[in-house]
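Figure caption, in words: inputs first, then the predicted bound structure.
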Amino acid sequence: MSSDSSRKIQVPDELKEVLLQFSISFLVEQPPDVIDYAVEYFTKLQSERPSGGHTDISTDDQLSVNSQDADAEPPVMASSRRKSVFAEAYDPEADDDDDGATAVFPKTDEQRARLVESVKNVLLFRSLEKEQMNQVLDAMFERKVQPGDYIIRQGDDGDNFYVIESGVYKVYINDKHINTYNHTGLFGELALLYNMPRAATVQAETSGLLWAMDRQTFRRILLKSAFRKRKMYEELLNSVPMLKALQNYERMNLADALVSKSYDNGERIIKQGDAADGMYFIEEGTVSVRMDQDDAEVEISQLGKGQYFGELALVTHRPRAASVYATGGVVKLAFLDTEAFERIMGFLTDVLKRNIVIYEQMFTDMARRNTNL
Ligand code: 1OR
Ligand code: 1OR
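Bound structure (1OR present):
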């Protein structure tokens, strides 16, 4: 090492911070082109800083996070944001982070039962085979937390992924509160999935209990399946206008929750009057929406690729308002169950409720036409 300290290049803290924030933003957004993204990112940064002032990272909105509390409705995404929600350039198949070892943490029956209960609603685990699920359960270990404990710090390397058994956890980006977990959910998956620094800080608000899984096990068992699924639904989720109101992060969670279903020509997908169990997005093909009228069914609408149905009963908590049939060949749908719908799309219900007004208006028009006949 040189003893001549005057020749050492000083890296300003501001430069480090700006580059770190840029990298996090880039990795969360996963845009197709780094240069285009950098131009857009730094232009936005420049336009937002106070005139004549220097960049104040701690108060800037680096990740397009709205300053409002996360409990409020999230911002609608600016149109300049990239279409791609998912990691296009990053190929997990080529990324071999696998040292072959799977940790096993022995558990009592009581612990295992609690763990099974905690992971029941983890969307990321949905596409796992039974054997993989058992490996996941073996590999998870308990971590007790106290109020104020930092579980994850923004910018750190990713070590573990966490599933919440109990406790309240607050999420911060650049010291701004952006999300809260209340006794359920998971966090810490982003850094491990995308091989990037932690995108946010997670701090325990109360005492609680977490189930953790180390990075190697997470990547070995979950990486490829989670990636395939997110990639598979990318185009579909980008093509649904209503979902533009979701943040990238939420759209990724939505992809984890979807289940593919196929219906043959003529097959009934939804029956009017039934209780609802979820909603559908159309991946391929068309469906016919029909309503009972006297003793017959009347077609009231046809829907195609990128459109959705079955949301009405979920929003109104009423039985299905119409029947829906597959038409014109095989129809491929992505199904979102009620529980996941409420968790992910809860705040979109205002958007969805606007449809009800349209449906009701059409219903009134139709009834009026019928009585005039
Ligand atoms: P991680 O490994 O990056 C921090 O470590 C964790 O905070 C992250 O994984 C997520 O599990 C969790 N954006 C990014 N990370 C979030 C967000 C989030 N919410 C929770 N985490 N949001 C989007 C902000 C632009 C909030 C969405 C409501
Ligand atoms: P659901 O959960 O009630 C049937 O199950 C679905 O058909 C419904 O959600 C909507 O997603 C979809 N009126 C009611 N439901 C409709 C309509 C509709 N169109 C599609 N669905 N109208 C047609 C509006 C173009 C009004 C008819 C008078």
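The domain at 109-220 is CATH 2.60.120.10 (Jelly Rolls).
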